[in-house]
Amino acid sequence: MTPLSLPLDYPRIRRVSSFHELITTPFADGVNALCWPRTLAGDFAEVVELLAAEQGITTLDDERLQALPVSAAGRVAVEILLADQRLLREHDLDPVLNCINGYPRDEEPGPVATDVLSFHVDSATVQADTWLCTYHGAVSEGLRNDQAQRRVDIPETRAELLRLYGGKDDTDFQVYLNENCYDLHYAALPQAQPFSFGLSNLWRIATDYPGSPVPPCIHRAPETQLADPVRLLLIS
Question: Alpha-carbon distance 214 to 129, whole Å?
Fold first, then answer.
């Protein structure tokens, strides 16, 4: 499935025009994703090249970014990366900047894969949101809630999970699904069309927590190959 550009007709996504609007707009009336579309200056490709990240996920700190011997265009990119993180920290968030050169996969996924390349929702025990921005490389993908089904609700998958669990479909089984994050992962329905989060856009998406007024936003990391460009991703 090739993701479409940001859908204009999907009422669960609301576009905003500033960071202030992004952080102060409540999730309500079914809206579970806020997007601040941006076009950023700077050479993020140069930053990625100089980082020379090894295979896997490398977390970047401010000192490493500031020490890169970048050109003027690269410096603009570095300052944007630092400014975005500073802005989130000023609002009591804990952003992480990752250079991603391939994702780890489940060694034994079983009937439900639980890695970030599977469509999933984020969860929390208290009110919390997820923040995302891709500056370079393949971008995150979303899936409409009405075009998705929880994998644990697919009869064949649930039967296999019950077999592995070795018990009855009761409250304890629900705890088992939750503890293994099986209940957070989704399958796209036939004819479903994922959408792209877009490059440089800053997103705030709803998570699954007790008392949430809206359903959580379904998303995933993009599937990439070894030869694909390295991702530069901000997440909080």
Answer: 12
> Do 204 and 26 form a contact (C-beta atoms < 8 A)?
no
* pLDDT tens per residue across span 102-136: 776 666 667 998 989 999 999 999 999 999 999 99
The total of other beta-carbon atoms located within 10 Å of residue 14's CB is: 19
Per-residue pLDDT tens digits for 172-194: 999 999 999 999 999 999 999 99
- Predicted TM-score (pTM) above 0.90: yes
CA distance 198 to 187: 22
Tell me the Ramachandran region of residue 80: left when phi exceeds 0, alpha when psi lies from -120 to 50, beta otherwise.
alpha
> At 203, is the secondary structure helix, strand, or coil?
strand
- Which residue, among 199, 220, 203, 198, has the nearest Cα to 45 in the 3D structure? 199
